[in-house]
């Protein structure tokens, strides 16, 4: 395996900051080396400098996206930080009958968060119209999210009634996996979006989850990203961030409701 030098690592730190606004700590050097070394082999390159030059050449847009995918994949799982899903259920149950309910998983990764939200809304809203939007910068994780298929061990945090109602257990060659039911998958739409750039017209939302992603941004990037995202939150809508995150010095446009939960006046 090629060894990445400090100078090469600094170049990739700059690359991912420019591409995604992510401030990559020096402790991630081994991760960068491990994930990108496969691309050196695939491209038959001899060094990380050669790979960086390829990315910078403007001649390899697909490779640039591949590198972004490899450097931005984050851990996620079903019903992570349950209090946010309790809030979502309460909001859905209090929603005016017949009125559409729109929710956005703004850093959806492989889809577990978006599908968790979908289970709650399907259970709470009856025949009222609703939709979940999931977005991520990585095309690779979005492809996985759209399949709705996950290893069975990832289902351990799904409430049993939801697991029985909304998930199918894999059989034969699909043994050890689960599939989110088609009726639920059809209510979840995944798109690529870079939160560090101007966002496409997505509509407005009753609830937005932007969880466990701001920890990768510096202060200025956090302020810019939050401002972009909450511009799509309806007045009275709710905004959830990770429990280890805060909007202190980031935005005063929202009112705190509970730790990691905010509302737009």
Write the layout of secondary structure elements.
Layout: H1 6-20, H2 29-42, H3 48-56, H4 61-72, H5 82-94, E1 101-105, H6 112-124, E2 130-136, H7 139-147, E3 149-151, H8 160-166, E4 167-169, E5 177-180, H9 182-185, E6 188-192, E7 205-210, H10 219-230, E8 233-241, E9 255-258, E10 261-263
Helix pairs in contact: 5-6
**How many domain units?**
2
> How are strands sequenced across the largest beta sheet?
6-2-1-7-8-10-9
Helix fraction, binned, reads: 40-55%
CATH topology of the largest domain: Rossmann fold
Give a description of the structure.
The structure is a single chain. The chain has about 260 residues and is of the alpha/beta class. The chain folds into 2 domains: about 5-70, Orthogonal Bundle (Chemotaxis Receptor Methyltransferase Cher, domain 1); about 80-265, Vaccinia Virus protein VP39 (Rossmann fold, 3-Layer(aba) Sandwich). Helices cover about 40% and strands about 20% of the residues. The chain contains 10 helices and 10 strands. The protein has helices spanning about 5-20, 30-40, 50-55, 60-70, 80-95, 110-125, 140-145, 160-165, 180-185, 220-230; strands spanning about 100-105, 130-135, 150, 165-170, 175-180, 190, 205-210, 235-240, 255-260, 260-265. It has a 7-stranded mixed sheet, covered by helices on one side. A 3-stranded antiparallel sheet has the order 3-5-4. The longest helix has 15 residues, at about 5-20. It is globular, with a radius of gyration of 20 Å. The N and C termini lie far apart (about 55 Å). About 35% of the residues are buried. The mean pLDDT is about 95.
């Amino acid at each position: 395996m090629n060894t990445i030098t400090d100078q090469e690592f600094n170049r990739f730190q700059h690359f991912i900051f420019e591409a995604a606004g992510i401030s990559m700590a020096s402790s991630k050097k081994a991760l960068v080396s491990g994930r990108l070394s496969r691309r050196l082999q695939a491209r038959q390159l001899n060094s990380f400098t050669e790979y960086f030059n390829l990315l910078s050449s403007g001649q390899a847009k697909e490779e640039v996206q591949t590198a972004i995918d490899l450097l931005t994949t984050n851990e996620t799982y079903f019903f992570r930080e349950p209090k946010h899903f309790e809030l979502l259920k309460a909001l859905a149950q209090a929603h005016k009958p017949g009125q559409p309910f729109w929710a956005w998983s703004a850093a959806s990764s492989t889809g577990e968060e978006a599908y968790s939200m979908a289970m709650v809304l399907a259970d709470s809203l009856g025949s009222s119209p609703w939709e979940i939007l999931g977005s991520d910068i990585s095309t690779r994780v979005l492809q996985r999210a759209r399949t709705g298929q996950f290893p069975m061990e990832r289902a351990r945090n799904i409430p049993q009634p939801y697991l029985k109602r909304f998930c199918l257990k894999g059989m034969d060659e699909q043994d050890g996996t689960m599939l989110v039911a088609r009726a639920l998958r059809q209510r979840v739409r995944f798109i690529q979006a870079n939160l560090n750039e101007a966002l496409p017209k997505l509509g407005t939302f009753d609830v937005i989850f932007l969880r466990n992603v701001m920890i990768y941004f510096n202060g200025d990037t956090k302020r810019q990203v939050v401002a972009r995202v909450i511009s799509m939150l309806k007045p009275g809508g709710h905004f959830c961030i990770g429990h280890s995150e805060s909007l202190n010095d980031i935005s005063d446009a929202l009112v705190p409701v509970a730790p990691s939960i905010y509302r737009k006046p």
